[in-house]
Amino acid sequence: MQDGVQDDVSRMLGQLLDGGDPATPLGPVKVQSVATEVADRLMTAVAVGEYLPGERLPGERELAVLLGVSRATVREAIGRLQAAGMVEIRRGRTGGAYVRASWTEATASAVRRTLVPRWAELEQLFDLYALVEGMVAATAAERRTDADLDAMASALEAYARAPTLRDEQRADRAFHAAVVAATQNPKIRALSQEVLTRVSLGFPVEPYGDDDREGHARALAEHRELYAAIAGREPGRARALAERHFTLTSDVMRTMLERSLAAGS
User: Fold this and answer.
1) H/E run at residue 220
2) CB-based contacts of 207: which residues, under 8 Å, 6+ apart?
3) Which one, 37, 46, 106, 228, has least CB within 10 Å?
4) Predicted confidence (pLDDT) per residue in 75-88, tens digit
5) In this model, does residue 178 exceed pLDDT 60?
6) Integer angstrom CA distances of residue 251 from 19, 36, 126, 208, 211
7) Helix or strand holding residue 97 (H, E)
8) pTM for the full model?
9) How many other CB atoms sit within 10 Å of the CB of residue 182?
10) Helices and strands (DSSP H and E) totals, the chain
11) Is 146 exposed, middle or buried (0-12, 13-18, 19+ CB in 10 A)?
12) Is pLDDT of 235 > 60?
């Protein structure tokens, strides 16, 4: 899809998801202390595993576009994460802000400030996300090609053999990207990405949580079931499996909210 058309789709979906209210709490940051809001969102994104220890955060320009703020605001917010010990700043060609820790003393309050006011809407978005991904999986089962199945199988193997959590997350993204690509419809891809961005507080990255072996085993088993349903051209089964699988996202967010509330009690 051309960039202009992609932007039009995103604007249209944004209006629908916002219910016509441009001041939605999941839209561009509009609070008295913008840098605090951006820092809180970034801390929450790290806490829920959207960005893992050792991973580089998006650059200033990209974050400014994603969150609808200035680069100076992003720079100030990153400085707050650095002061809290969550990121380190590296210089040079591969420089940037790299995640050091997923949780610090400052994290609990940031997660509470970010998630508590938004929770009712997030619950609605979790429901929408599962339904959208169910539609994606059903469509993929009807339209997938052998090449699509090869891409899914490759990602599945990489996920099963991933030596680190970051490799595991990368393979997980590749598997779901292959499922979306199998719909053969860029507008469906745009819808999936738009809802994910809303669920992820403005960052188009799937919440991933901590290094949880039980969760990894569950996700791997569900990936394999979903692959089998798509390969077997079983749209109804694929839909049901995907809707169930994407409750993992809400589970991660809910766990982090509970952790933050417990830390504040």
Assistant:
1) helix 213-231
2) 48, 49, 50, 199, 200, 249, 252, 253
3) 228
4) 999 999 999 999 99
5) yes
6) 26, 26, 10, 10, 14
7) strand 96-99
8) 0.84
9) 24
10) 12, 2
11) exposed
12) yes
